[in-house]
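Regression test attached.
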Amino acid sequence: MAINYFYPDYEVIRNEKKCIKCKACVRQCANEVHAYDEELDCLVSDDASCVDCQRCVSLCPTRALKIVETDNTFKKNANWPQAMITDAYRQAGTGGVLLSSMGNPQPYPVYWDKMLINASQVTNPSIDPLREPMETQTFLGKKPRTIKFDSEGNIVSETYPNLKLSIPIMFSAMSYGSISKNAHESLARAATELGIYYNTGEGGLHQDFYQYGANTIVQVASGRFGVHKKYLEAGAAIEIKMGQGAKPGIGGHLPGTKVGEDVSRTRMIPRGTDAISPAPHHDIYSIEDLRQLIFSLKEATDYKKPVIVKIAAVHNVAAIASGIARSGADIIAIDGYRGGTGAAPTRIRDNVGIPIELALASVDQRLRDEGIRNDVSVVVGGSVRNAGDIVKAIALGADAVYIGTAALLALGCHLCRSCHGAKCNWGIATQRPDLVKRLNPEIGYKRLVNLLHAWDHEVKEMMGGMGINSIESLRGNRLMLRGIGLTEKELDILGISHAGE
Amino acid sequence: MKRVYVNEDWCLGCHLCEYYCSFANSGKSDMVKAFNGDKKTTPRIVIEEGDDINFAVQCRHCEEPLCAKGCIAGALTVTNGIVTIDSSRCVGCYTCVLSCPYGCIVTDHEKVVKKCDLCASKSGEPACVKGCPNAAIVFEERG
Amino acid sequence: MNYLIIGNSSAAIGCVEGIRKIDTTGQITILSDEPYHTYSRPLISYWLEGKVADEKIYYRPEDFYTKNNCNVILGKKAVKIDKSAREVILEDGSAISYDKLLIAAGSRPFVPPMDGLQLVTQKYTFMKYDDAKAVKEVLKPESKVLIIGAGLIGLKAAEGVYKVTKNITVVDLADRILPSILDSEGSSIVQKHLETKGVRFTLNDRVKSFTENTAVLEGGSVLDFDILIIAVGVRPNTEIAGECGIEVSRGIIIDDTCRTSDENIYAAGDCTESLDITTGTQKILALLPNAYIQGEAAGINMAGGSKNYGNAIPMNAIGFFGLHMITAGTYEGETHVIKTDDEYKKLIFKDGLLKGYIMIGEVSRAGIYTSIIREQIPASSVDMEMLVSRPQMMMFGKSRRLEKLGGVNVGN
């Protein structure tokens, strides 16, 4: 046998005294970590297969299980951390590109955590959201520059299709294929109940979910999977996906094993074939080309639906956004480098792109400087983790946020970053029927609704604290933010003062 | 009347309902004690496992309970719609096992048979319902 | 309404409970020739064995009659029915009138004529509480017990005395034990089990003659005994019905509602003939569940409700010394047999239907098979492989399961 260069990353610790041998762990682990040994009459584990998804820990009725990071240690080396050495071993063994899932986990600065929110004292009193009206409803899309009325008081200016959001949060694009049907149903039902939107991703729209069309954003990506007239008409808005924060500059690849009957029909590709999304849209090589696609889609849907263009946050994001704003898009979605994914090459995910906070600040500023800020709405995603991040994003200039990872957490995701293995023990990032059924949409959608209600309350609390009673008054209100531990340059890009200033 | 229903679409076959059922009927305050002690406990629930479908079956509390009608010892009775067994009267003849159309009367090493009583002596939902991680077992009124 | 019930066992109790579902005020009179609160006859062997305490042999709680507002006349035998006067005459000459009458007179042991039987002083049958009490009275650890009859009653009697004496011999004319419920394979399994416990069998033989303490068999052997229990069979108590002109064949003839040929007289339980749906023939199904179900149906109909006793089949659940067996239906047809160390199972199919089964040892969930027989569910509509392997709801397929398990309102 060849040398095994690895030691398992995680170890299963089982408290034998508390284990009642119910075997729930055995039945629930799709990675087959746990097994019952009849001879020994006890449970045994294969640590090497454990991805630390915590499913067994969560279901163990006596809390007899925990998963710990191994303390097996390679010789300390600040330049060569253990994980990096292991990656080299792995690639030396396989010769392949390393794959990962979910967002960039590397210890880059998180700018959300380096900004602090203001609160009123004495001169401009704070507002108690439990006693006074507080508005978090917002509209996304192009706004008229001026409003003109006729003698009867009717608006005569041209108005544009907008999305109405009861709270400034949407579920970001996650395709049916990368996540399960039950996960999609949870998102669709939650969006409907909340009065917000979820996003089909590039996988098309399953026939069962056309009923949620009024709360659906349908995506058109480089593979154009599942795109047809009825699909475009079904959604409330259309999103052109140019890029994704987790893997800017590259396309996508859904392996044929995940393309079963339902996915095949929804994506309109043969069963069992790989679904390859090219890195670029092969019909878009300029802003003019993009404009052509935007207007093709508008034409196809009778100019009734706003068109979103989604890009990854990269170096020239402000200039790119300016071009998009001029190309006829109604909404620009920017996805930061911490955004999640069902599968991405590890090196791309960990090294390409820029933080959403900086991208947002520079885009908002650029659009203002050019006087076209009201021609588009700006939606940001790529690791919006809580209500605090939302308030900061809006204060930096966002109209709304996209959440993906946080939504999956509500559905049970434990961020084990093994989506690409397609054996998600929580029934989210898998198409295996026995695993998919683990996510009951009845539970899932309620948890999503709970999460967003909670965040909405918190946003209102923070707004009230600032003496602001409408989300519109918070937008781009960078005076409400102060940086902490940031350099002059960072403060400059964020357009905020340092704490104490 | 509220009864326990299983939605097999959501049943994971994790068997936790069995364990919560046994625990609830063990009289023990601690789950570990209930299972790792000397006295073994038996669930009043039966899990059926198929290739891609699982479900739990427990007493349907029939309006015309054949088990109670056929009981030779008068041990099975209906109280407020709940079919209950008086273990002190049961002689273990298994006529109820013969009669139950759902196979919900459970036999074990003990002399008497056991069955679900909807956890009537405890408050709230039956233990299997509370313990189901995926809301596959529900306690509700249906037509 | 004035109800009269002859009998005080399960059919009678079923009748009371049936009447009270419809009519909570009518006068109910129960008439029994035994002096006891309603008790369960199948429990007498358990009582003799000491498994069932005195107070637990009763079929219903002590306050049953009061709660159901019944007038109970115990220890008096009904001797005659006057249909036209709608009266029942008791042995003391008194008469009780009725609007609706239930005959739940049960059955009695059949004792065939045998040479020298009159010489035996300690001879008993084994059906009533009094029988068990009498046996208990004389049973000693050194007693040698001879049981004539290797049927359900004979073998339950053997189990009943076993705690006190293991010196038990069972004689039967048939070549195997429990012929009424088992096939020969099953019989030999159960016989072996009983033999390992020390019970001796002499089959294919009969008693030629008795002296006070010996039985001489036709085969030539001579068996010593102290206590003789005769359990060769039972006969339905149909005389009181037959004599007043109600139609009687081997048992009292009733329709689906348990009514006899007289519109005011119903009958239920061991004294009647029921329609066995597995064969389509009328037969006496002397078993407690059937008695209760018929009694209850009779009660409901007597009180003006509407109920068929329906779907009767022969069926039995019984155990001897920890070995359980459950059987149902009839055994003619194509068979599937599973035999392992722990289980013997035989399924019998005919005309595309499950007609009967025998399960010995592993008997769990047998009721699912019973229901398939009773509901006459075509074998083609279930998963045959699952059906044969073990009783399970899985065999029914999703929509039928939803219907059966009640989950019709959910799911996709």
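Expected vs. actual: identical. The mean pLDDT of chain B is 92.
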